[in-house]
Amino acid sequence: MRYLIALILILFPLVGAADDWEDRLIFNEGAKGAHLRVISSTDTVLFAPLIESFVAQYPSISIEYLVSGTADINRRVRATPEAFDVVISSAMDLQLKLANDGFALPVEDVQVPSWAQWHHSLFAFTFEPATIVINRAAFEGQPIPQTRQGLIEALRKRPEEFRGKIGTYDVRQSGLGYLFATQDARASETYWRLMEVIGGLDVRLYCCSGEMINDLADGTIYVAYNVLGSYAEVRTEGKDALEVIFPSDFQTIMMRTAMISEVTQAPEAAEQFIRFLVSQNPATPEGHSPLPFLRSDTDMTERETIGLNPALLTFLDGLKRQKFLSAWENAVIQ
Amino acid sequence: MVPSPTVSGSLRNRLVLALIGGAAVLAILLFFTVRSYAAKVAQQGQDNILVASVASILDAAALREGALEVDIPYAAFSMLSTPSDDRVFYAVFQDGAFMSGYDDLQLSDGPEEEQWTFHTGEVRGERIRQVSARRTLVGLGKQTEIAVALGQTQDALSDTLDQISRNAAYLGLGFFLLTAALSFWVASTTFGQLNRLTMSVTRRGPQDLSPFKKPVPKEMAPLVLSLNSLMGRLDQSLSQSEDFIAEAAHRVRTPLATVRSYAETTLHRVERKENREALRAMVRAIDESSRAAGQLLDHAMITFRADHLEREEIDLVDLTRELVQRLTPIAEMRELSLSLTGEPSVPYSGDPILIQNAVRNMIDNALKYAPADSTVEIDVDTTPGIQITVSDSGPGFPPDEIDMLTRRFERGQNATGTIGSGLGLTIAQDVATAHGGSLVLTNQQKGGACVILSL
Ligand SMILES: Nc1ncnc2c1ncn2[C@@H]1O[C@H](COP(=O)(O)OP(=O)(O)OP(=O)(O)O)[C@@H](O)[C@H]1O
Ligand SMILES: [Mg+2]
User: Fold this and answer.
1) What is the CATH classification number for the domain harbouring B144?
2) Is B7 a member of any domain?
């Protein structure tokens, strides 16, 4: 029901919107107080319930929710930092670089564990593993692979069936895709072998999780590699055909992060929003948010979350990125 | 009353101040030393990590087919992670030209021979610590130089420093408090010795001039030594002057007595009237001289004893009674009677020799100036105060001279023809004053003098 309202609301602002946003939505329009411009890589469907409960709590604040891809968010924030108050993205490396480069406004005393924040300016509020989503039909009578190695073997066994039926991020376009790829490559050589295999099978490249899962759902592809678990679970709800696999060899877990723009015009409202975000608890029954919020009691040594530290800058280095992309292209685009 | 000495400053305060001041200076010195040392160590720590990071980046540089490749290792930046999430800036240069990283970072040039150049500067409004280093790569006929600048903010460092400063401050403060307490203790024990010496000087009796024998600290030994020698000399000169008084009394009186007895003898032998007159005048003069010598020496003795008044418990009635008994024969010779009245016993603490001397002079006056066949009344009483009153029924003091008679050598008109030196009342008054009392001369209404020695 709420989603319906959200969808209806989408229609009005979109009429006049000239900018090419993936989605643009205004919550609590006409509120007398601050107007927050939130730029985010999270689909509205996933985020709307959260914003609704925020504006219910702070009725004077109105929120303009702007959705774009992670790489695009990074570009836009760098180009016009004054146009946004809160920046939310799943590309932790790009976010950390934004904060390191001074685009983030530090907020003191935000209740998050030290590993879930960086420099008091970047705050993690979800943890979301990268998953492999498959179409069960394609694995009829075959064992369902649980590891990357297993997937490689399955693909090698029946290459013709999977030709053109595999999807993954185009790491050149997607910030999150690049983050997952670099972290996978760092974790294991298996990543490169998998890339070579799917490269040989005419892999389809996507800019975003959403499209990939749509294609998966309608049978265009059978296997999607490195899809966000949160998206996958929302989309596979009620779709028995799809199965989400959390690879058991190693997991790459991303934390969605939020920060306040250094030049925000509504610092107080933005701060309230950040505090609200990090206070979300997965156990809150009324939340029902599909976003897997961070548990502050999560044991980090168990969860192999990508660390929020300067190492994330490594693969954003121009030379390093060039080298990585050319290796990736060599493997995937043959 | 001994005049209090002129006080200028306090040794104890000076000592305490010097010690505390020294402690404060030391504590501050300690604070700054610890802090600057800690700062150096902490900076060294950051520098080491920066160096390790830059080294790993330089190591990752290679010439491949003539092109420079810099494959920054993940660990290079990962090791820069700090509890305060310090910001990191880096730049890679090839032959001085910017290749990647943050182009607002400048290579800092240090001395040629040093591989690492450290530099503290400002980037994007943040204070950073920067390390720069170069490496020359030689490939197929090509030589190229790669340089890396790596900077990091110092939030974690300053957090550490704050903490160290706090601890150093506590350390300094603790040191100071301890030393201050110690200096108070040292000062009070040091001056406790002095106080103890002072106490033992104060508590001594006036006649106690024996040397101090209790052990004293080495530094006080000269003081005690000179004190002892001073007291030795004092003791010696006192006993000398006492001896001198006794000696003088003896020396003057004995020859006078001899002269007098010769004069008396001669008087009996001489027949001519004018010679007898002359001899009588001579005997009189000798009596006057003898009296004067006696009174002078008494007066000197009184003055000395009054200066070193030594009180003892006595009964004034006993003392007076004994005196009256001794003087009764003289009184009877003049056909006068002495009567003692008043309390049965009046205990008093004073110098019996002085009091006896005073009362003797008072009774002596009554005997001298009162007419025969009269009674001299001696009264020892405690009301209104402790006092000894001697009254006679003679002519009394000449009223116009009554105020001057206590002066030295002052005699009244009525004394003409009576042997005397004019010191009797002076002695009585000095004795009264030495005991904190007074001497009052009055004439009674019924006639006769009345002298009150109140103590
Ligand atoms: N009881 C008295 N009655 C009358 N006059 C007195 C009496 N006692 C003292 N005076 C007067 O006071 C004077 C001072 O007395 P003071 O005892 O001092 O001297 P002094 O008796 O003359 O000599 P001395 O020294 O030998 O006693 C006396 O000369 C006398 O004139
Ligand atoms: Mg007399």
Assistant:
1) 3.30.450
2) no
| pLDDT tens-place string over residues B246-263 | 677 778 888 888 989 999
Q: What ipTM describes this predicted complex?
A: 0.88
Residue A326: what pLDDT? 94
CATH code for residues A130-252+316-332? 3.40.190.10
What does the angle CA A314 – CA A318 – CA A324 come to, to the nearest 5 degrees?
Answer: 70
B342: left (phi over 0), alpha (psi -120 to 50) or beta: left
Size (chain B), residues: 455
Using the predicted structure, report yes or no on whether residue A12 has a pLDDT greater than 50: no
Ligand 1: does its nearest atom lie under 6 Å from the Cβ of B420?
yes
Residue A177 CA to residue A84 CA, distance in Å, equals 24
Homologous superfamily (CATH) of A2-127+255-303 is Periplasmic binding protein-like II (3.40.190.10)
pLDDT beyond 90 at A302: no
SS (H, E, C) A214-237: HHHHCCCCCEEEEEEHHHHHHHHC
B125 in contact with chain A, both atoms CB, cutoff 8 A: yes
Element (H, E) at B310: none
| Number of domains observed in the structure of chain B | 3
Of A83, A55, A64, A67, nearest to A26 by C-alpha is A64
pLDDT of residue A260: 97
- Rounded to whole angstroms, how far apart are CA atoms B257 and B17? 71
Q: Are A309 and B76 inside 8 Å of each other by CB?
A: no
Residue B2 lies in a domain: no
Q: What is the mean pLDDT of residues B217-230?
A: 89
User: Is pLDDT larger for residue B128 or for residue B4?
Assistant: B128
The DSSP element (H or E) to which A82 belongs, if any, is: none
* Largest interatomic CA distance in chain B: 168
| Residue B425 CB–ligand 1 contact under 6 Å | yes
Bridge partner list, B255 = none
Ligand 1 centroid to Cα of residue B425, in Å, is: 7
* Ligand 1 closest atom vs CA B414: 31
Q: List, in order, residues 6 or more apart from B296 with CB less than 8 Å away.
A: B421, B423
Nearest CA to ligand 1 atom 5: B397
- How far, in Å, are A59, A62, B379 from residue A32 at the CA level? 9, 8, 114
Q: Per the CB < 8 Å rule, is B72 touching A101?
A: no
Query: Would you report the helix, strand and coil content of chain B in percent, each value rounded to 5?
Result: 55, 20, 25
pLDDT tens-digit profile of B15-40? 889 989 999 999 999 999 999 998 99
What is the extent of the structural domain holding B343?
Answer: 310-455
Q: What predicted TM-score, i.e. pTM, was given to this entire model?
A: 0.69
Burial of A143-182, coded b for 16+ CB within 10 Å and e otherwise, reads eebeebebbbebbeeeeeebeebbbbbbbbbbbbbbbbbb
Looking only at the bridges linking them, the beta strands covering B347-350 and B312-315 are antiparallel
- Do B304 and B264 belong to one domain? yes
**Distance (Å, rounded) from C-alpha B288 to C-alpha A210?**
147
**Tokens, residue B29:** 């010195």
Question: Domains of chain A: which residue ranges?
Answer: 2-127+255-303, 130-252+316-332
Sequence-distant (≥ 6) Cβ neighbours of residue B290 within 8 angstroms: B252, B253, B256, B257, B260
- How remote is the CA of residue B175 from the centroid of ligand 1, in Å? 79
Task: Please tell me whether residues B216 and B322 are part of one structural domain.
Answer: no
Interatomic CA distance for residues A95 and A93, integer angstroms: 5
d(CA A132, CA A146): 9
Per-residue pLDDT, A220: 93
| Domain match, B332 and B454 both | yes
